[in-house]
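User: Structure with 2-phosphoglycolic acid, tokens only please.
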Amino acid sequence: MTNKLKYFIANWKMYGDLKSLKSINKVINFVNSNKKKKIQIIYCPPYTLLYPFSKKIKNTYLELGAQNCHPNFEYGAFTGSVNPRMIKSIGAKYVIIGHSENRANGDTDQIVNKKIHSALKSNLTVIFCMGETLAQKRKKIAMNTLKIQIKKGLKGLKRNSKIIFAYEPIWSIGTGLIPNNPDLLKNIIFIKKFLKKVIKFKNIKVIYGGSVSPNNIKVLNAIDEIDGYLIGGSSQNSKKLIDIVKKTFK
Ligand code: PGA
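Assistant:
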């Protein structure tokens, strides 16, 4: 049982078309009938669905975010790219930056840093992803990896910029595996302390991502320090998403 505000970020990845929009009706109804609970659901569909989503969720309690952005704040000749100003202009308020699937496609810490600056300048709230690989976990250098990602990713930022931090161990994304609770708690606390001490952030929100499902949410939610969840696979199924939210507040 929790009384804290919890974020549920639905990362649809490269799934979904106009027909899938109908599936969120259930979630809209659910949130409307649970107004007193501190639930913040943020949908992050592919770029192609951002505008229809923004129309769909207007006057609901749902929010909208993009899954990535181009590092440039200015418009320019970047074929196939979308910058944070464009994302903001259609009514989205959030953007995921530094997701491991994009880091694997070439997003270095420096690029991540540039994207964050540009997104904040566009007045978007950043969902900043970090996490270690299985090899790094085995070598017991997970915390060091997180430290580097945080330091380089946040370089030059003002204290208390609008950022939600997402801890996503890479080995748990899409695998059905989740960290054991002592390890997860240790890493969440480490991230919060490091941000507070070194970067002097206050009121830090750290969410967890990686194979979150209705089957493991109770176990994860035993950790009160977790401020919400970044949900991939399970978020494309409204029933599963609602189940996750319900179990968080039970
Ligand atoms: P998953 O994805 O829930 O399918 O593991 C999470 C993510 O990549 O953000």
